[in-house]
Every structure is written in C-alpha cells, then in structure tokens.
C-alpha cells in the first residue's frame, strides 16, 4: 500500500542515556490521507517528523516509503517527494514570483498562478498590484502572517510532493487564517499524504487519522471524532 510507515522505530538523541525520544513507534501514514500528530511539548512530534524526512535515522526499526525500506542510498527519493511547511514561514524580501519559484525554477506561469490560487484565498491574489512581480516585505507590500503562510504553502505544493508535512504551520495564526489554510488542505486531501503536527484540536478536525504522542510513544490512535469525545 502507498504511504510512509514506521515499523518498531526507536530513537535516542544521546546513545548513552536510557531515555528514548521514540519508543517502538509503529504507524502508517497512508497516501491520500490526512494524519494529525498531536502531543504535549516534548512528546516527540518533531523527532517523528525528522525521522520521516530522513533527517535522523532510526536506531532500531525501519521506515518504509511505499513498502520500500529507506536506506542511505534511497533517502534522496524521499527528500524529493516531501514538502515541509514550518511554523515560521520563510520568505525572501523579493517578488512573489521569486519566492514561489525558488525550488521549482522551471515552473510555468500557469503553474505558479495555480499554486497561488490553490493556497491563497482570492482576496490575497487580488491584492497583489503587480501580480507575481509584486515585491513583498520592506520594499513592497506587507503580508499578514496568514498571507505569508499561504505563500509558503503555495511554494510547498508547487513541488507536487507525495508527502506534505505541516509542522505547527497554523499555530501562530488566528482562527480565520487557520480556516483558510484548512480549506486549502481540504482540496489537497486525496492527492497526497498530509501530515499535520499540531497542538490545538481545532487544527486537526479534518484529519482522517489522529495519533497522540506522549514521552516518545503512541498513546492513542484513531479518528478525530473518537478522540475528541474523550478530551
Ligand atoms: P515535540 O516536538 O513534541 O515538542 P521533540 O521531538 O522536540 O518533542 O522532543 C522529544 C524529546 O526529545 C524531548 O524530551 C526533547 O527534550 C528531546 N530532544 C529533542 N531534540 C533534541 C536534541 N536535539 N537533543 C537532545 N534531546 C532532544
Ligand atoms: P524577523 O523577525 O527577523 O523579521 P520574519 O520571519 O518576520 O523575521 O521576517 C523574515 C523576512 O521577511 C524579513 O526580511 C522581513 O523584512 C520580512 N517580513 C517580515 N514580516 C513581513 C510581512 N508581514 N510581510 C512581508 N515581509 C515580511
């Protein structure tokens, strides 16, 4: 089956210590499915994401992409297929176009607009006086936090990833901006594996699967409805 999977994954930052940041993690993130990973600060969310992106390697256990075990040799294929959206959107003080085409320099005009419309509400697109050549930041228009994050999301989906990771990507946004991003993600659902790391329940209400981490272990796994009932 297509997707990314952790099989009995263990990980320690300090090989001499007894504390595991990941303990026996068994989880499957199906493609075409939105999975939310929640848990308190220090629960292991970032550690899990780093392992899934191949930035850290499991100490024991394995990670499989579409059933194929990740090794040092095929890690590059994983990295090519992942787009990562962090909490703090990283943008250059240049044009919208340059920020979008940073990773996909050969993207066509249509692809750039499609990605932008996909991730950005139309009011944001309309607000760009010179279209894609509008300067942002100190030299151009100032973007709100939500607009910045939608621009970063547009850039992330331009790569046509098979896995999209949002790491607390809407944590700093107000609920209206968060809803805008959620609507964009709703449209992406079914097209790629979406992994959302979050701490607010409202952020993950559209998830098909929710995983709750605590002290490096999965303490709950199920549908949002079932988890929400227990909270
Ligand atoms: P979360 O993302 O859920 O806040 P983390 O994955 O960052 O949790 O952290 C899980 C555990 O691993 C915590 O105990 C944290 O202190 C520890 N940890 C995280 N990063 C490092 C690191 N670079 N070196 C040592 N310990 C770390
Ligand atoms: P910093 O706190 O260092 O400014 P930011 O991530 O906020 O970090 O900013 C990174 C870059 O983006 C900076 O060069 C800044 O000028 C620019 N920038 C910051 N806020 C905005 C904004 N609302 N709209 C457009 N550009 C911004």
From TrEMBL:
Protein localization: Cell membrane
Top-level taxon in the UniProt lineage: Bacteria
Span of domain ABC transporter: 4-231
Name of this chain's protein: ABC transporter ATP-binding protein
Upper classification of the organism: Bacteria, Bacillati, Bacillota, Bacilli, Bacillales
């Amino acid at each position: 089956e297509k997707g990314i999977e952790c099989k009995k994954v263990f990980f320690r930052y300090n090989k001499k210590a007894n504390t595991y940041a990941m303990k026996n993690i068994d989880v499957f993130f199906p493609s075409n499915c939105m999975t939310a990973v929640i848990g308190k600060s220090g629960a292991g969310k970032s550690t899990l994401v780093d392992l899934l992106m191949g930035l850290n390697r499991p100490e024991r256990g394995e990670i499989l992409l579409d059933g194929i075990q990740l090794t040092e040799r095929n890690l590059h294929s994983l990295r090519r297929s992942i787009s990562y959206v962090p909490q703090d959107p990283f943008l250059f003080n240049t044009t919208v176009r340059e920020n979008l085409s940073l990773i996909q320099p050969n993207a066509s005009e249509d692809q750039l607009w499609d990605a932008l419309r996909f991730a950005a509400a139309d009011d944001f697109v309309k607000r760009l006086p010179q279209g894609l050549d509008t300067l942002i930041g100190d030299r151009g228009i100032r973007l709100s936090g939500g607009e910045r994050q939608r621009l970063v999301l547009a850039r992330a989906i331009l790569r046509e990833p098979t896995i999209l990771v949002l790491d607390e990507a809407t944590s700093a946004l107000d609920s209206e901006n968060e809803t805008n991003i959620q609507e964009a993600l709703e449209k992406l659902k079914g097209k790629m594996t979406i992994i959302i790391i979050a701490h607010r329940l409202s952020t993950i209400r559209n998830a098909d699967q929710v995983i709750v981490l605590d002290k490096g272990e999965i303490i709950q796994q199920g549908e949002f409805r079932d988890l929400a009932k227990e909270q």
